[in-house]
Amino acid sequence: MVSCFIFFSAFVSATLLPGSSEVVLLGLASQIPEQWLSLLVVATLGNTLGGLVTFAMGWGAFYFGNRHFSWLPNLNEQAKAKPWLVKYGAWSLLMSWAPVIGDALCFVAGAAKLPVWQSTIAMLIGKAIRYALLLALGNAVVNI
Fold first, then answer.
1. C-alpha torsion angle, residues 9, 13, 15, 16 (rounded to 10)
2. How far apart are CA 11 and CA 79, in angstroms?
3. What does pTM read for this prediction?
4. Cα 65 → chain centroid
5. CA separation for the pair 51, 47 (Å, rounded)
6. Residue 61: which domain range?
7. Can you tell me the distance from the alpha carbon of 115 to that of 9, in angstroms, rounded to the nearest whole number?
8. pLDDT cut 70: percent of the chain above it
9. What is the pLDDT of residue 63?
10. What's the CA gap between 78 and 62, in Å, rounded?
11. What pLDDT is recorded for position 69?
12. CB atoms inside a 10 Å sphere around CB 103
C-alpha cells in the first residue's frame, strides 16, 4: 500500500498536475527508514513514468497540432529555440526533476521528438539522483 501511495504521488508530481512527492517521500522515509531503498526505487519509477506521460503529451501536441491545426505555432521550432535542448539533446532531461522547468522540459523534448530511450534513461538517472540526495539530506537532518 505504501508503494502505491509513493508511486502515485511521484507520478502525479511529474505530470503537468501539481504535486509534492518530495514531502511524501520524506514523510514515509521517516516512518519506515528501513525501506528507504524500495521507496527510492518506487518514487523514481513513478516520477519517470509521469515524465514520460508529459513527454508523450509533447509528442502528441507536435503530431496532432502540426497535422490538424496549421494555425498552431510549430512546436518543433519552439523546441529549437531552446539552445540547451538542441545542444545536449535527450541528456538535457537529466534536469527533468527541476521545479518549474522540469515538466516543460519533458513536454518540449517530446515535441522535438527526441529519442525515447535516451530520454527515458536521462529522466530516470536525473530523478533517481534527486530522490537519493533528498533521502540522504533528510537522513542527515534527522540524525544530527
1. 130
2. 24
3. 0.82
4. 23
5. 6
6. 2-142
7. 26
8. 83
9. 72
10. 10
11. 55
12. 21
Grid cell locating 68: 490538424
Q: What is the largest CA-CA distance in the chain?
A: 59
- Answer whether 95's CB lies under 8 Å from 109's CB: no
Query: How many structural domains is the chain composed of?
Result: 1
Instruction: Give CA–CA dist 125/34, Å, rounded.
Output: 23
How far apart CA 75 and CA 4 sit, in angstroms, is 35
**H/E element, 67:** helix 36-68
Average pLDDT, the chain: 84
Grid coordinates given for 41:
526505487
Environment class of 110 (CB within 10 Å of its CB; exposed 0-12, middle 13-18, buried 19+)? buried
Q: What's residue 45's pLDDT?
A: 96
- One-letter amino acid of 37: L
Q: Grid coordinates in use for 143?
A: 540524525
